[in-house]
């Protein structure tokens, strides 16, 4: 190799190294799955003239998938095509791989953190000679090590954020978490003319449950209620605990003509709750509530507190009419 060619190579490597370092710094500042995955799966190909990047992650209990899906939201669903969740990802060495069509060359990088194998990052190119067998991969292995560290950090940071927005007793969203979910739903509704529905519900005579069966049984009722509601809801729905035994649901995309049926299902599930007191006797339960279908309009802002005020008025009527019933808010 001629000296000028060597110098040219060294210059190119130095420039690539600088760009990679700048990219790694961006990765290290990510705190949410959305930022991390957008940067890695869209930013990396765009900044390094690649045609695709995919991530395979070890996810034996499905926890990563659940939290990533929540963070990504429906709108960034396209990123999901570049993500694969596997209970076990085969351990590999860094090196070129046969790419899936239409790509012509590919590189697989293992993601290792403290000797724990977290998954693989794969890069693909439409050019045959971009990744070749035996090529040097030191720079890219460094990127993979930083990616693995970020994967662990973002997981921890998402977990902390989730805890701050979650009610510790029931696992439902707390008021702050629910407020955030409402804002997101409202904004999405405005952009996409998307309807959503909300339900407010309050367990009937809950004070009596506590007084007769004890606070422990009361707590079990609340936990079981949330578990059951989550079972009858869609994974993209939101359940919030707004007060002691008052809960609210956000049902994205629930059409007005389906809403009464969904509410009926919720009501049935509550009546059928199987919670035992300390003497192993079943505690009969019911709830009262109200529901509303919302179509956000451009240039309009309906605050969560306003919606809850409407719903509260109808909930109060449902209690007054004898409980164990849900009333539709008439708009
Ligand atoms: N076990 C338990 N009880 C709670 C919790 N938070 C609030 N409560 C109780 O929930 C009860 C709410 O009672 P009320 O607001 O009088 O309502 P209610 O008895 O359900 O009557 P109606 O709503 O009119 O049917 C109170 O006794 C609270 O102490 C909790 O985290 N655990």
UniProtKB/TrEMBL annotation:
Signal peptide location: none
EC number(s) given by UniProt: 2.7.7.65
Domain annotation GGDEF: ranges: 194-331
UniProt KW keywords: Nucleotidyltransferase, Transferase
GO molecular function terms listed in the Swiss-Prot or TrEMBL record: diguanylate cyclase activity
One Pfam family in the UniProt entry: GGDEF
Cross-referenced PROSITE patterns: GGDEF
Reactions catalysed according to its record: 2 GTP = 3',3'-c-di-GMP + 2 diphosphate
NCBIfam families reported in the protein's UniProt record: GGDEF
Annotated protein name in UniProt: diguanylate cyclase
Species of origin: Bacterioplanoides pacificum
